[in-house]
């Protein structure tokens, strides 16, 4: 139990995927203009990330390791992820067109969210077991979601602020993300790894 | 005769933002005196430096943004930021530290977002956090209060000496003579001692803690003054201090040898300053009264967590920044119940 | 130059720069730009993959069934990336260690996938290759600028450790800007990366605004009546 | 050599499985129709003026959902662009001046003594806002006229004017407060100016 | 003593009431012209019953309500109608709107009054009709037609009647003076209202800064032994706001979007009660009201009994205004009133106060500083809103969010703007946002309507096309048959003369078209020449050609008409 | 139904085709670069080892390892000690150890010890200390790490093995005492451990390691 708590604290706060590890930045910048969309994206990403974590673990453990072809891990993981995402996308498209449109081009782009492949690769690097992999994937997604949701609420406030023209939009978004990252540095050391 | 379309109301209370800021400035006076009393001329010099550079940067930004300079300089917000920053950094930090700090606070944290009222993060704390991670050496060298190094105020660096330390920085032996760890640092890196042993054996705590208590009391005085003058409300400070007290008491009661006692958490370090002057910064705090309570609780809890398990002995700046970034989100969920509504409009709904 | 290719080039380098405008591929961009050498390394790798994947996708664009379009594209990209990864391990092992997980993560660099899907799968081979090349160069330029900024501010040097990429002779390329620089850690840490990127984007905005002003000025002297694209919808 | 063969086989195996899944899903979860068009159409001003380059608002809505730019509708102006950007999560862009510029709302008035009753304007009006029969003078139903000015051009005797709606206390709007322009310039306002170019 | 509750927020600005209470109510002079806007109330404007040139008697109905929510208008004095049309009216926009202007003859000749002293015996509907005929609209604020509020009996159960005597705004003392001097009128009015609504509980809410009025009312109530609770509430603006007063006196909140009657409460102003008394017992319609004239630019600051329609200028003169010192003219109180730039506008039914303020009294507000979210506005908002958030959203044009923050529950009381240290014109921001939202809604409605019509037209066209196709087919067949027949009939005389009338019209049209074409071409040519474009020679040729053909057409028409006549 | 089958067939065929081709390409690259990569990895690992003990002494240093439990050093799993063997006699050993009480996370060290107990050299393999402060333990940043060279440890009472602030002989860095304190303590502990397990440590192993099975990093545990 303690172990999982540590993994969660570590992935959500200390080594936040977005703000400290730099994974999943494109959706972080792209889908954070509106809190509502951000929440949708968070849910989608949480789902995909956890699932990808599981699938990639299974593929690695039961296909790649036994045949000693671990150097195929990138391509096989990304294939798994792409299929999972595409499948999700088809289902969402059919069942909830609004959600589908809200997430716009980003649902297919979850495939190319670094966080998803990143979590799969880091699971191997950290030699996590099955349960740990799930916890790690979920923690990473939770960290991503938290950062995304807070950031989008913040951006909504900035949207009505009197930001100089040159900085309006992406530039001030980046600066804000930087200050967020600065704030998250406060968590350094909570969990020692 | 009057203009048309002049909207009501046609009268207003004699009240102005600059007056609010002046009151805040006034309220920092006790703490400034206390700091000078215990630590020497350093704080005063830092303050002058910070104020000058902050006003300068503010003027430059206003100029670049083609705003009327005097009109905005008069509102005094840059001065408040400068003073809080100056009083937060070690009194004998080199001059460029405080100048870089003012630059960060005024240019990056404030004017990139559109100036007064628009910044989501507390400028002074952004500057402090940035300085802390960029120049940990300079930012952790607090000098010892005079009660530790001599028996009178004379033991501290004289005014010219202070100037020399801050501006030339060459006088390393001078610095070394004065610097020491702060109580929170000592308690954090206690090297195996129990809390009680630290209190008994380390002079900063056994003899010098009164300096910190005195400074905290001074901040508290200023804070009470601000509440009395209705510049701030009690919500955030009260929530923050009580949650900090609660957490530290609980853990201390559970394991008195490993956790610092509540008096340290409340009375030492930047707690009081943070509670009354920083967590109450209207611009970057949550909006409603309920939101301010949530904000305060968050700051208090984060301060405790980071102080106890994290890497930074005094966590106020990071706690504030973290809650700053959560403030808009808190606002979404703490909207008060308006007249005639059964429930408050919580959550998102701003979309459509 | 052929006007179409010219447009593609300008788009890649400036108007639709993957990093500054599309805000894609941010992860490696921010993560590995602690120094110029990292930036160059990643820039080259990314460009090679971009060109390769654009070429391949464009070649087979008519053969790919719609439902499995994305999986196939990512496989193509992943193949290139793995090949690059293996080659880097073989040739510049130290750099590979520094860039770490971000080499395999080129696969998920949104810019690459984005180009494959949005451009290469709809355009003929030459255009796709030029597009890949220009996007790659545009991306690399931003990488290098950010790397230089952060290295200069953070460590006071430029082009240090170039030997990792260009062999021992490159060791001497290092420029020390300030002797005994104390280091402005902020620039080297994650927050600095974000803020630096923000400043770069703002710089681009500023230049764009200035350019626009100039164009407007020259425009206002001519009077060319705007041709309305109106459609009459009734009799 | 064996490594190569195993690698190919394993990946082939994976691909087969996934191909099956996706092939199945492609049919099972196919989506027909596009409800987003309705939402876009609801945001367009329905002036039906064709300035966007499409014959009416709905065709433009369809075009937008297929990726066309959202800044081609002058009657809707900046506010419609913002609403569309919001709906589709796209960037807000200034109005494309190739399609015209945002103008104050107007309605058509027919100078009745000059009208020759040719019915050309009736045929032109997309919302049937003009009353009259052949060879009789015509009038515009002010409350129905969308101000698209499509009737102006066909009139052979030029008797139709587009006039702004008069402001009365009932339809008067509170203006946004303007502060002393020397003191508070919001960058927001200037941003529009800068981006919007010359207008 | 009933229990007193409290409402959130509120402010206590300097009262400035003493100045206008020095003298008793004075009759205002009869002006030469009375200007009566057709809309002095909430709802639809009234429809005139008179025409220019008519003579009218005092109290004669000159406009009748048009629709359910509307109010009648009566001639406040005898005279003749000289004008019906646009005149400046008291409205925040400063625009003109339709009015009836009466030139008074100084006779003050009353129409025959029809009192209903035995109202208790009457059918309630008849009584209500009588009140409606008297043109009474709330005198306390919005001017809502009173008969509607009194006609609730059927679909609402009213158990509490609240008489609003709070008069919470600074400066205004009209209700205060009324209560001091005519408490009996008020109480009789309340009796009539109570008769109509049959409430179980009657409350009068009055602020504690009017001791004399409290005493007068209390004595009168005691003398009449009426079951009325006189509740003295603390002086705090806006305790007189309907919803706030209800909360103050009963602890009940009126749900957003509904009216007090939904919770069994009706709230009427004391002035309205007095007006009802006059209408019912004396048979006098609402033609005058009490107006406070105050402000330091006036020589006499006191309450006047004023005929509705009296121009402000007349009143100001009568109160000896010093125009050089008058800096701002406000109708209503300083918190909610509207500023006036043209003093020819008339007093209307809701005008309770005119403030001619000097510069020192109401200085121009200093330039707005940025909002620092200090929260002072939030502490005083009686509707428990977040004014600062509303402001940010209004400024950033994020109207959806403003709405989500209950923008439409803002009563525009101005308390927030009063305390704002940054001097932000908050209320105007809200009014702007509300206008924009309403406008947007109207436009959306219009767009939906337009779409419907467009689609209907498309459908019609399609149908017509189909029918045309059908007919064409039939015609083709018919034509084939006809041709066959024609062939059979060998030669025949040509068709008879054409209808000369139609011919003429055709020629006229042709001439007209030719003229227009020519004009267009000339314009184009001129335009082109001005801009110095090339290709003008071609245009010139076209113009020349058109000139000729226009002449020809003109000639033809001329000839034709010549032939005819 | 027909449509479903069609769709499945087409998609499966497409994706498989590409899968086979890409897998083949990668596999070929892998086969071609395999040896070079293995060599690189080996060289990389060995580099630090040979910084402590010159390659001229024993070029097979990185191949001769010995697994030893080291609970005294706070390691849960056995550590892999490298032996430098000259003439069948262990001249020196290199121990991978970890200091846990650094400022922010573990500091992984390699401590080389001559057979007579003198320090041959210390290197930091990886750490997470603050750049500019704690990172002066890296040899690239400062030569503080050389202050261990040739020192010996004289048992528990030896006060020199402390930072100056604690009364020892090692400099602390300005503003950072924790990092050097952690490193000094751990090196001292390692020397103690060496004295205790001298016998085992100095028994030469036969080459157990081959480049194939020893792919891992010395400190990867
Ligand atoms: C648009 C509108 C509709 C109203 N409808 C009714 C109604 O149907 N019945 C009623 O008794 N009062 C109605 N009222 C009257 C209000 O309840 C209230 O008494 C009146 O607006 C005066 O309030 P004020 O001066 O505080 O604004 C309505 C008011 C407004 C503004
Ligand atoms: C902020 C505010 C203050 C008001 N103050 C008073 C007041 O002091 N006295 C009053 O009679 N009406 C006041 N009103 C108007 C009342 O809300 C309400 O319209 C009136 O009492 C209804 O009575 P009537 O229909 O008889 O006018 C105020 C309204 C608002 C919004
Ligand atoms: C951001 C930050 C990073 C720090 N990093 C280190 C570090 O890496 N190593 C270290 O020993 N001390 C570090 N410190 C300093 C410690 O907080 C503490 O001041 C110091 O180690 C105690 O030194 P002293 O005993 O010399 O006062 C850091 C401080 C801060 C604020
Ligand atoms: C009660 C109060 C507290 C404030 N606290 C801070 C503060 O902690 N940091 C700061 O930079 N400015 C502070 N200010 C000043 C002002 O709000 C600040 O300059 C704005 O954040 C800049 O937009 C404070 C002002 C008030 C009235
Ligand atoms: S320009 Fe706008 S209003 Fe006109 S047809 Fe196109 S969408 Fe409709
Ligand atoms: S009357 Fe003219 S302007 Fe109005 S809707 Fe019809 S065609 Fe358009
Ligand atoms: S009182 Fe004024 S400055 Fe303060 S929060 Fe409200 S609007 Fe902003
Ligand atoms: S004007 Fe509106 S927001 Fe302001 S205090 Fe009054 S009710 Fe609240
Ligand atoms: S590059 Fe990481 S999410 Fe796009």
Question: What is the structure about, briefly put?
Answer:
Chain B is mostly helical and 352 residues long. Chain B contains 20 helices and two strands. Chain B has a two-stranded antiparallel sheet.
Characterize the structure shown.
Chain D: Keywords: 4Fe-4S, Cell inner membrane, Cell membrane, Electron transport, Iron, Iron-sulfur, Membrane, Metal-binding, Repeat, Translocase, Transport. The complex is a heterohexamer of chains A (193), B (352), C (235), D (199), E (565) and F (221). With 352 residues, chain B is mostly helical. Chain B is built from 20 helices and 2 strands. Chain B folds into 2 domains: 16-180, no CATH class; 209-333, no CATH class. Chain B has helices spanning 17-27, 29-39, 42-64, 69-73, 77-88, 95-110, 123-134, 136-139, 146-149, 159-167, 172-178, 183-188, 195-201, 203-206, 209-228, 235-254, 262-267, 271-278, 289-309, 316-333, and strands at 142-143, 179-180. Chain B has a two-stranded antiparallel sheet with strand order 1-2. Chain C is an all-alpha fold and 235 residues long. Chain C has one domain (3-217). Chain C has helices spanning 3-15, 26-31, 36-59, 69-91, 93-99, 110-118, 125-155, 163-166, 185-188, 190-221, and strands at residues 157-158, 175-176. Chain C is globular, with a radius of gyration of 21 Å. The relative contact order of chain C is 0.16. By secondary structure, chain F is α+β, with helices and mostly antiparallel strands. Chain F is built from 3 helices and 5 strands, in the order αβββββαα. Chains in contact: A-B, A-C, A-D, A-E, A-F, B-C, B-D, B-E, B-F, C-D, C-F, D-E, D-F. At the D-E interface, loops of D face α13 and α14 of E. Bound molecules: flavin mononucleotide (FMN) (3 copies), riboflavin, iron/sulfur cluster (SF4) (4 copies) and FE2/S2 (inorganic) cluster. The site of one iron/sulfur cluster (SF4) has 16 residues of chain E, from α9 and α10. One iron/sulfur cluster (SF4) is lined by residues 371-377, 387-388, 391, 419-422, 424, 426 of chain E.
How would you spell out the order of helices and strands of chain B? HHHHHHHHEHHHEHHHHHHHHH
Low-confidence stretches of chain B: none
Structural class of chain B: mainly alpha
Radius of gyration of chain A: 17 Å
Radius of gyration of chain B: 21 Å
Tally of separate domains of chain B? 2
- Describe the main β-sheet of chain B briefly: 2 strands, antiparallel
- Regions of chain A with pLDDT < 50 over 5+ consecutive residues? none
Class by alpha and beta content of chain A: mainly alpha
Number of helices of chain A: 9
Q: What fraction of the residues of chain B are assigned to beta strands by DSSP?
A: under 5%
Write the layout of secondary structure elements.
The complex is a heterohexamer of chains A (193), B (352), C (235), D (199), E (565) and F (221).
Chain C: H1 3-15, H2 26-31, H3 36-59, H4 69-91, H5 93-99, H6 110-118, H7 125-155, E1 157-158, H8 163-166, E2 175-176, H9 185-188, H10 190-221
Antiparallel strand pairs in C: 1-2
Chain E: E1 26-27, E2 33-37, E3 47-48, E4 55-56, E5 61-64, E6 73-74, E7 79-88, E8 96-104, H1 124-133, H2 146-150, E9 160-165, H3 174-181, H4 183-197, E10 201-207, H5 211-224, E11 228-233, H6 242-250, E12 265-269, H7 270-282, E13 288-294, E14 302-307, H8 312-318, E15 326-331, E16 338-340, E17 353-358, H9 376-380, H10 387-395, H11 399-404, H12 415-419, H13 426-488, H14 500-531, H15 536-564
Parallel strand pairs in E: 1-14, 9-10, 9-12, 10-11, 13-17
Antiparallel strand pairs in E: 2-8, 3-5, 4-7, 5-6, 7-8, 13-14, 15-16, 15-17
Helix pairs in contact in E: 3-5, 4-7, 10-13, 14-15
Chain F: H1 2-52, E1 65-68, E2 79-86, E3 89-99, E4 107-114, E5 119-126, H2 178-196, H3 198-201
Bound molecules: flavin mononucleotide (3 copies), riboflavin, iron/sulfur cluster (4 copies) and FE2/S2 (inorganic) cluster.
One iron/sulfur cluster (SF4) binds at residues 371-377, 387-388, 391, 419-422, 424, 426 of chain E.
């Amino acid at each position: 139990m303690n172990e999982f708590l540590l993994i969660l604290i570590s992935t959500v706060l200390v080594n936040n995927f977005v703000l400290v590890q730099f994974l999943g930045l494109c959706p972080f910048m792209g889908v954070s203009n509106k809190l509502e969309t951000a929440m949708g994206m968070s849910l989608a990403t949480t789902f995909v990330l956890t699932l990808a974590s599981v699938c990639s673990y299974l593929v690695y453990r039961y296909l790649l390791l036994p045949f000693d072809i671990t150097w195929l891990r990138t391509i096989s993981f990304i294939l798994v992820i792409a299929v999972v995402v595409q499948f999700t996308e088809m289902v969402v498209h059919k069942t909830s067109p609004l959600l589908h449109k809200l997430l716009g081009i980003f649902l297919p782009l979850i495939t190319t969210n670094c966080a998803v492949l990143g979590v799969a690769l880091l699971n191997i690097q950290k030699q996590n077991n099955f349960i740990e992999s799930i916890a790690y994937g979920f923690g990473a997604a939770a960290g991503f979601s938290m950062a995304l949701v807070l950031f989008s609420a913040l951006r909504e406030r900035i949207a009505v602020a009197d930001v100089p023209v040159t900085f309006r939009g992406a530039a001030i978004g980046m600066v804000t993300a930087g200050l967020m990252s600065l704030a998250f540095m406060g968590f350094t050391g909570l969990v020692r790894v | 005769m009057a203009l048309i379309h002049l909207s009501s109301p046609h009268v207003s209370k004699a009240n102005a933002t600059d007056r609010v800021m002046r009151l805040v400035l006034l309220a920092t006076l006790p703490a400034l005196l206390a700091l000078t009393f215990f630590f020497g001329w350093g704080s005063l010099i830092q303050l002058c430096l910070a104020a000058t550079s902050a006003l300068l940067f503010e003027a430059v930004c206003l100029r670049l943004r083609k705003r009327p300079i005097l009109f905005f300089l008069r509102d005094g917000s840059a001065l408040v930021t400068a003073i809080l920053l100056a009083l937060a950094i070690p009194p004998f930090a080199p001059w460029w530290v405080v100048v870089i700090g003012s630059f960060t606070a005024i240019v990056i944290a404030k004017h990139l977002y559109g100036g007064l009222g628009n910044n989501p993060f507390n400028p002074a704390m952004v500057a402090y956090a940035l300085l802390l991670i960029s120049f940990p050496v300079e930012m952790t060298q607090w000098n010892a209060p005079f009660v530790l190094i001599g028996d009178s105020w004379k033991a501290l660096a004289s005014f010219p000496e202070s100037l020399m330390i801050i501006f030339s920085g060459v006088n390393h032996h001078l610095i070394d003579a004065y610097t020491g760890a702060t109580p929170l640092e000592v308690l954090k890196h206690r090297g195996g001692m129990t809390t009680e042993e630290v209190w008994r054996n380390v002079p900063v705590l056994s003899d010098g803690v009164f300096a910190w208590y005195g400074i905290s009391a001074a901040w508290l005085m200023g804070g009470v003054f601000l509440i009395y003058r209705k510049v701030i409300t009690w919500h955030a400070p009260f929530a923050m201090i009580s949650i900090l007290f609660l957490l530290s008491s609980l853990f201390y009661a559970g394991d008195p040898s490993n956790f610092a006692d509540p008096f340290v958490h409340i009375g030492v370090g930047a707690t009081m300053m943070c509670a009354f002057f920083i967590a109450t910064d209207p611009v970057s705090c949550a909006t409603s009264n309920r939101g301010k309570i949530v904000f305060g609780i968050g700051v208090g809890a984060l301060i405790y967590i980071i102080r106890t398990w994290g890497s930074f002995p005094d966590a106020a700046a990071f706690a504030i920044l973290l809650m700053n970034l959560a403030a808009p989100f808190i606002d979404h969920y703490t909207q008060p119940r308006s007249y005639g509504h059964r429930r408050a409009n919580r959550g998102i709904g701003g979309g459509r | 130059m052929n006007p179409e290719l010219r447009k593609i080039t300008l788009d890649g380098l400036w108007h639709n720069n993957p990093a500054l405008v599309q805000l894609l591929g941010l992860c490696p961009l921010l993560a590995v730009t602690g120094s110029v050498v990292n930036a160059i390394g990643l820039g080259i790798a990314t460009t090679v993959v971009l060109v390769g994947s654009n070429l391949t996708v464009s070649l087979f664009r008519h053969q790919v069934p719609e439902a499995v379009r994305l999986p196939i594209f990512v496989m193509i990209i992943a193949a290139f990336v793995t090949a690059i990864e293996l080659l880097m391990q073989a040739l510049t092992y130290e750099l590979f260690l520094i860039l770490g997980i971000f080499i395999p993560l080129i696969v998920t660099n949104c810019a690459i996938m984005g180009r494959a899907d949005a451009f290469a799968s709809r355009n003929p081979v030459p255009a796709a290759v030029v597009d890949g090349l220009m996007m790659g160069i545009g991306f690399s330029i931003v990488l290098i600028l950010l790397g230089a900024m952060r290295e200069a501010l953070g460590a006071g040097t430029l082009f240090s450790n170039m030997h990792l990429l260009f062999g021992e002779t490159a060791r001497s390329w290092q420029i020390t800007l300030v002797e005994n620089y104390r280091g402005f850690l902020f620039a080297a840490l994650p927050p600095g990366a974000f803020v630096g990127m923000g400043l770069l984007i703002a710089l681009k905005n500023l230049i764009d605004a200035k350019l626009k002003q100039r164009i407007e000025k020259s425009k206002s002297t001519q009077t060319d009546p705007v041709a309305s694209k109106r459609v009459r919808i009734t009799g | 050599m064996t490594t190569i063969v195993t690698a190919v086989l394993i990946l082939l195996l994976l691909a087969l499985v996934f191909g099956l899944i996706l092939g199945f899903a492609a049919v099972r979860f196919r989506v027909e129709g596009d409800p987003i068009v309705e939402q876009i159409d609801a945001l367009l001003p329905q002036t039906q003026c064709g300035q966007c380059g499409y014959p009416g608002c709905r065709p433009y809505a369809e075009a937008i959902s297929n990726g066309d730019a959202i800044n081609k509708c002058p009657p809707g102006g900046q506010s419609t662009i913002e609403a569309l950007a919001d709906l589709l999560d796209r960037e807000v862009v200034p109005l494309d001046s190739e399609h015209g510029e945002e103008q104050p709302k107007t309605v058509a008035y027919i100078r009745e003594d000059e009208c020759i009753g040719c019915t050309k304007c009736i045929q032109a009006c997309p919302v049937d806002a003009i009353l009259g029969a052949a060879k009789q003078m015509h009038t515009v139903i002010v409350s129905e006229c969308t101000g698209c000015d499509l009737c102006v051009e066909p009139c052979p005797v030029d008797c139709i004017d587009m006039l702004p709606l008069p402001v009365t206390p009932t339809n008067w709007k509170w203006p946004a407060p303007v502060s002393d322009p020397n003191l508070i310039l919001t960058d927001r306002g200037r941003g529009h100016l800068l981006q919007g170019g010359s207008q | 003593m009933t229990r007193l509750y409290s409402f959130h927020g509120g402010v206590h600005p300097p009262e400035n009431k003493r100045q206008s209470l020095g003298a008793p109510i004075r009759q205002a002079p009869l002006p030469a012209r009375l200007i009566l806007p057709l809309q002095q109330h909430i709802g639809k404007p009234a429809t005139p019953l008179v025409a220019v040139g008519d003579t009218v008697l005092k109290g004669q109905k000159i406009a009748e309500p048009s629709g359910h929510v509307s109010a009648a208008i009566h001639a406040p004095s005898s005279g003749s109608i000289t004008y019906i049309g646009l005149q400046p009216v008291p409205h925040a926009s400063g625009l003109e709107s339709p009015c009836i202007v009466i030139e008074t003859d100084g006779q003050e000749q009353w129409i025959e009054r029809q009192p209903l002293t035995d109202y208790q015996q009457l059918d309630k509907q008849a009584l209500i009709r009588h009140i409606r005929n008297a043109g009474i609209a709330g005198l306390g604020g919005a001017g809502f037609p009173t008969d509607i509020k009194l006609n609730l009996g059927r679909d609402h159960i009213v158990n509490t009647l609240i008489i609003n005597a709070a008069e919470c705004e600074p400066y205004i003392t009209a209700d205060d003076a009324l209560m001091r001097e005519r408490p009996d009128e008020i109480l009789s009015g309340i009796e009539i209202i109570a008769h109509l609504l049959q409430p179980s509980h009657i409350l009068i809410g009055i602020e504690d800064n009017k001791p004399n009025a409290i005493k007068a009312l209390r004595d009168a109530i005691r003398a009449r032994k009426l079951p009325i609770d006189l509740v003295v509430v603390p002086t705090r603006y806006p305790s007189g706001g309907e919803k706030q007063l209800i909360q103050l006196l009963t602890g009940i909140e009126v749900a957003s979007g509904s009216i007090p009657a939904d919770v069994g409460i009706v709230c009427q102003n004391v002035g309205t009660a007095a007006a009802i008394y006059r209408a019912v017992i004396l048979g006098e319609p609402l033609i005058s009201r009490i107006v406070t004239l105050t402000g330091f630019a006036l020589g006499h600051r006191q309450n006047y009994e004023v005929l509705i329609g009296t121009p402000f200028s007349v009143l100001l003169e009568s109160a000896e205004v010093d125009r050089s010192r008058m800096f701002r003219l406000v109708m209503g109180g300083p918190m909610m009133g509207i500023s006036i730039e043209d003093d020819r506008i008339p007093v209307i039914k809701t005008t309770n106060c005119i403030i001619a303020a000097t510069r020192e009294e109401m200085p121009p507000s200093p330039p707005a500083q940025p909002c620092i979210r200090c929260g002072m506005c939030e502490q005083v908002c009686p509707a428990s809103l977040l004014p600062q958030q509303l402001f940010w959203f209004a400024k950033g044009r994020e109207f959806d969010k403003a709405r989500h923050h209950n923008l439409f529950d803002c009563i525009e009381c101005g308390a927030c703007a009063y305390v704002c240290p940054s001097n932000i014109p908050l209320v105007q921001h809200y009014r702007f946002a509300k206008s924009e939202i309403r406008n947007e809604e109207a436009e959306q409605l219009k767009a939906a309507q337009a779409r419907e019509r467009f689609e209907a037209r498309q459908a019609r066209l399609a149908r017509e096309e189909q029918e045309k196709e059908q007919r064409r087919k039939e015609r083709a067949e018919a034509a084939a048959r006809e041709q066959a027949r024609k062939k059979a009939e060998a030669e025949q005389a040509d068709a008879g003369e054409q209808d000369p009338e139609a011919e003429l019209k055709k020629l006229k049209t042709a001439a007209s078209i030719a003229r227009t074409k020519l004009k267009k071409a000339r314009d184009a040519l001129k335009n082109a020449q001005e801009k110095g474009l090339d290709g003008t020679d071609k245009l010139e040729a076209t113009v020349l050609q058109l000139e000729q053909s226009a002449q020809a057409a003109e000639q033809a028409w001329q000839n034709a008409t010549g032939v005819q006549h | 139904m027909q449509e479903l089958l069609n769709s499945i067939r087409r998609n499966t065929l497409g994706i498989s085709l590409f899968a086979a081709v890409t897998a083949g390409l990668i596999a070929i690259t892998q086969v071609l670069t395999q040896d070079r990569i293995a060599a690189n990895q080996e060289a990389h690992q060995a580099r630090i080892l040979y910084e402590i003990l010159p390659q001229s002494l024993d070029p097979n240093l990185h191949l001769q390892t010995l697994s030893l439990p080291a609970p005294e050093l706070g390691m849960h799993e056995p550590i892999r000690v490298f032996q430098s063997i000259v003439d069948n006699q262990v001249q020196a050993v290199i121990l991978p150890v970890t200091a846990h009480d650094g400022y922010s996370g573990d500091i992984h060290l390699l401590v080389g010890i001559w057979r007579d107990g003198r320090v041959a050299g210390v290197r930091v393999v990886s750490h997470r200390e603050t750049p500019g402060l704690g990172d002066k333990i890296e040899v690239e940043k400062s030569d503080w790490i050389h202050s261990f060279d040739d020192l010996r440890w004289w048992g528990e009472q030896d006060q020199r093995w402390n930072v100056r602030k604690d009364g020892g002989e090692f400099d602390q860095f300005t503003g950072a005492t924790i990092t050097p304190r952690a490193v000094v303590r751990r090196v001292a502990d390692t020397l103690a451990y060496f004295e205790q397990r001298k016998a085992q440590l100095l028994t030469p192993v036969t080459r157990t390691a081959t480049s194939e099975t020893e792919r891992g990093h010395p400190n990867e545990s």
